[in-house]
Write a structure and sequence with these properties.
Layout: H1 11-61, H2 71-78, E1 84-88, E2 100-103, E3 106-109, E4 128-133, E5 138-143, E6 162-167, E7 181-184, E8 195-196, E9 202-203, E10 207-208, H3 215-225, H4 237-245, H5 254-264, H6 272-277, E11 286-293, E12 299-305, E13 310-316, E14 323-324
Antiparallel strand pairs: 1-4, 2-3, 4-5, 5-6, 6-7, 8-9, 10-14, 11-12, 12-13
C-alpha cells in the first residue's frame, strides 16, 4: 500500500456539492427572508404601540388625556408628548396615510374613513385625523370623548381613549394587516354604511331581531319610538326591532327596500354576491322588516326576497326570523 498517496475531491464532486447547496439555498431562502421580515414587522409594531402607551401615560399625568370634544383637539395634546411631523383632517386622510390597505379580506379605501363609525365605534361621534409621526409611522386616529384620566393612577394607559390604524412603513408596501398595518380599538374598518342608497340613506349591518316586547313593554315606550299601535297579545318582534334601531323611522321605508331589491336583482335574477356584500344571506329566502305598520294592530309590513323576486305584504309581528336594517 502506498502510504504517501494523496486524496482530493474531483472537480465534478465539488460542482455537485455546490449545486446541492445552491438548490437548498433556493428552497430555504424565501422562507428565511419571510421569517426575518415578519419578525421585523412584529418588532416595529411593538415599538410603536409601546411609545404610544407611554405617550398616553404622560398625557394622563399632565391632565391632557380626557375632556376633548374632537379628535383634532386630542391630537393637539398628543403632539405635546409625541413627535408628529404632519396632521391631516378627515377630508385629506390620504395625504398622511396610504390610499388603499388590505384589512382582513377586504381592500379599504382610506379616503372613506372619516369618523369613529368607520372604526366600528358608533357612540364616539368623532372625526378621524391622519398623522405622520417623526419615526416614519403613519396613522389614522379617532378620539373617544368618554375616556377617563386620573393623574395619580399608574394604571391608566389611555387605551380606551382612541382607535387607531397605523402603518409602520409609512407609505411603503405591503399595506397589509398583520404585516406593516396594525390597529387598536378598531372593531371594523370601512364604510359606516352596510348599504348606502342614492337618496342618501345609510343603513348599518343587518341583524336578525330575536328580542320581542310584551304588550306592557310596548305601551311604555311606543310614544318615544314613534309606534302607533301595540299588539293586543303575544310577542312583538317588530316592536323589538324598532327599539333596537331607536325609532320607527330608523327602519327602512318601502322605497328604501325597493332600492335595495333593485341592487340585489340588478342582473335580472337574485345576486347572492350583492346580497352578501350587504350582510344578508347569499341565498334567497329571507325577509326584511320595514318601518310601516299594518292597518291591523297585529301586523307590520315586510319585504321578502326569493329566487323569483320580492314580495311586499303585512305579516303578524310574532315573526322572529326577519332581518333588520337600522338607518344611521
Amino acid at each position: 500500500m502506498n502510504k504517501n498517496k494523496k486524496t482530493a475531491f474531483t472537480l465534478a464532486e465539488v460542482l455537485i456539492v455546490l449545486g446541492v447547496l445552491g438548490v437548498v439555498a433556493i428552497l430555504t431562502m424565501p422562507t428565511l427572508m419571510t421569517r426575518i421580515q415578519t419578525k421585523g414587522y412584529e418588532t416595529s409594531a411593538k415599538v410603536f404601540e409601546g411609545r404610544l402607551e407611554e405617550a398616553m401615560k404622560s398625557m394622563n399625568q399632565k391632565r391632557i388625556l380626557s375632556g376633548h370634544t374632537s379628535t383634532a383637539d386630542f391630537v393637539n395634546s398628543l403632539s405635546k408628548v409625541m413627535k408628529i411631523s404632519k396632521i391631516c383632517d378627515s377630508s385629506h386622510i390620504t395625504d398622511c396615510f396610504p390610499e388603499v390597505i388590505t384589512y382582513g379580506n377586504s381592500d379599504v379605501e382610506m379616503k372613506e374613513i372619516k369618523s369613529a363609525k368607520n372604526f366600528g365605534q358608533k357612540d364616539w361621534d368623532t372625526e378621524t385625523v391622519g398623522l405622520m409621526f417623526a419615526n416614519g409611522t403613519s396613522a389614522v386616529i379617532a378620539y373617544n370623548p368618554s375616556c377617563k384620566q386620573d393623574r395619580y393612577s399608574n394604571l391608566i394607559t389611555g387605551s380606551d381613549c382612541y382607535g387607531i390604524v397605523y402603518d409602520t412603513t409609512g407609505f411603503g408596501k405591503p399595506n397589509t394587516l398583520g404585516k406593516d398595518i396594525g390597529s387598536l380599538q378598531v372593531t371594523k374598518l370601512g364604510k359606516a354604511c352596510a348599504v348606502e342608497l342614492k337618496n342618501g340613506s345609510c343603513f348599518s349591518d343587518p341583524f336578525i331581531q330575536r328580542t320581542q316586547l310584551s304588550v306592557s313593554e310596548c305601551s311604555a315606550v311606543k310614544s318615544e319610538l314613534g309606534i302607533t299601535n301595540c299588539k293586543r297579545s303575544g310577542p312583538d318582534y317588530w316592536t323589538g326591532a324598532v327599539q333596537a334601531c331607536g325609532h320607527k323611522s330608523k327602519l327602512p321605508s318601502k322605497s328604501d327596500l325597493d332600492e335595495i331589491a333593485d341592487l340585489i336583482y340588478s342582473s335580472g335574477s337574485f345576486n347572492g354576491t350583492v346580497a352578501q356584500s350587504f350582510g344578508l344571506p347569499s341565498t334567497p329566502g329571507f325577509n326584511l322588516w320595514s318601518q310601516q305598520e299594518g292597518p291591523s294592530t297585529e301586523g307590520a309590513y315586510k319585504m321578502g326576497f326569493s329566487q323569483s323576486g320580492t314580495d311586499w305584504y303585512q305579516v303578524n309581528r310574532y315573526e322572529s326570523t326577519y332581518y333588520v336594517f337600522c338607518k344611521e
